[in-house]
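Batch manifest, entry 17 of 40.
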Amino acid sequence: MAETVIPSGTTSPGILASLDPLLREWLPRQRWFAGKGRPVTGFSLVEATELLPPGARLGLHHLLVRAHQPPAPGTVPRPGDCYQLLIGVREALPPRLAPALIGHVTAGPLAGRTVYDALYDTRPAEVLLEALRTRARVGALRFERDPGQEVRDALVPRLLTAEQSNSSVVYGDTFILKLLRRVVPGVNPDLEIPRALAREGCARVPAPTAWFLADPSGASGPSGQEDDAYVLGVLQPFVRGATDGWELALRELAKGEDFAAEARALGRATAEVHTALAHALPTVTLGHGQLRLMADGMTDRLTAAVRAVPALRPYESGLRSAYRALADLAAEGRTWTAQRVHGDLHLGQCLRSPAGRWSLIDFEGEPARPLAERRMPQPTVRDIAGMLRSFDYAAHSVTPPAPDWAAACRAAFCSGYAEADGRDPRTEPVLLRAYETDKAVYEVVYEARHRPDWLPVPLSAVHRLAMSDQI
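Output type: structure tokens
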């Protein structure tokens, strides 16, 4: 089907000014807002498109808005983060949309109207699916679809309300649309990697059916992957009845059930994805220079973390030894292969179907890291370390903690990985310890800032890693 070009209504240049006071209150309360703890000092508009005809009873504005904030202490000032907003406009909200309320506009082109997060509303969600289905072009927005896949219309949408760093809408238990909230221009791995795996025939990752992007410069080519385009959302098949690994692990823990068999199967699935990625995208060899930079980066992050969280100070020397051991191996001429990886792998990024098959999702990487860094080849051990930490988190989420459960899962995951890959991650103890230490240090800083009650979980791992020269 040829693409549909839809003339967009011109979004009034005054719309952002009229929304400004409401967004300053609403945006920092959202789970996906990255600048918590610092005031929003203003907004600038990157892109604005009206997705429903002007003057209709229901308005729908797509905005890319840059939120400006003072820099965090000790950091270099930089441009504000850019967020994707879908703003619905009504005279008044029905009770079912009360959780979506942003506020009541008192000035500007929307004065007297009520604005809200449109993803909670059926009609705006249907507009997005129809645009993807017909490969529409609306102003700066471009909707693309895999020509080999069809999207049926009249699929009933529902917003997933679980806390996540983005937003997801399920259409009729057939598709799930993930909308990226904090966006940057460039090739997004959450689209790039699943498309590459689909070409490789890897069934462990749902293949993208459709996606959309914003190209304010108007320069993107047919791939929609130019450096100045913003990837905004990806539509993929919905795994009906699936349970994410975190929920499943907690359920089994609560029942006192063993999880080792599932951990082993998840290890096999992870290895299959890594093997497919090594075939689909380029690999590189990390020599002394690159490994030294890697170890130095880990050391620098530890130094900053100790300044931010004094509870790390007693462990600093032991943690540094993990990075020194990696640098020493590099100096001796040791090399490692690096490839594209998941980048933020944990139990919550894995789905188990009712038939017992594991899939990996959400290849965006750690959103706080620069896009170029998220797309860099890494040793596969980075993903493995993330999963090992996730088992530890699950084991400490119950009372009393279950460290033996975590140890059994960690061992089973590594064994399953070796069954599919032929290499057991535990045979690389220096590299694995360095990556797991780096991850635990990151977790300490995160928990100290956002969830102080959880701080003992990564601190227990820090204690273990600081006292050991192997995992």
